[in-house]
């Protein structure tokens, strides 16, 4: 599915400790319009559960979590 996803915004939070990646995401999402596709890059394993939980609470859509060799890419759409 990632081949079809072209993020409008990429947030590089690699090497940030928890809850840094989530805080980076929340701060950025507040500035974005609905329909914006965001890619969050993180090396923090907890982000793979924390981010989807926050997205559900905040009403945004999780598109995909892609595991790479040394990090995860979390794709979402702002609603």
Count of DSSP helices? 2
Low-confidence stretches: none
CATH architecture: 2-Layer Sandwich
The first-level CATH class is given as Alpha Beta
The profile of the biggest β sheet is:
4 strands, mixed
Q: Class by helix and strand content?
A: alpha+beta
What is the number of beta strands? Answer: 4
- Fraction of helical residues: 25-40%
Strand residues, percent: 25-35%
Supply Rg.
11 Å
User: What is the overall silhouette?
Assistant: globular
Along the chain, the helix and strand elements come as EHEHEE
- Superfamily (CATH H level) name: TusA-like domain
Mean pLDDT: 95
Q: CATH topology, which one?
A: Translation Initiation Factor IF3
What does this entry look like structurally?
This protein has 79 residues and is of the alpha+beta class. The protein is built from two helices and four strands; from the N terminus they run βαβαββ. A four-stranded mixed beta sheet has the order 1-2-4-3, covered by helices on one side. The chain starts with 8 loop residues before the first strand and ends with a strand.
Quick structural summary:
The chain is an alpha+beta fold and 79 residues long.
What is the secondary structure topology, with strand pairs?
Blueprint (H helix, E strand, L loop, with lengths): L8 E5 L6 H10 L7 E6 L4 H12 L2 E7 L4 E6 L2
Parallel strand pairs: 1-2
Antiparallel strand pairs: 2-4, 3-4
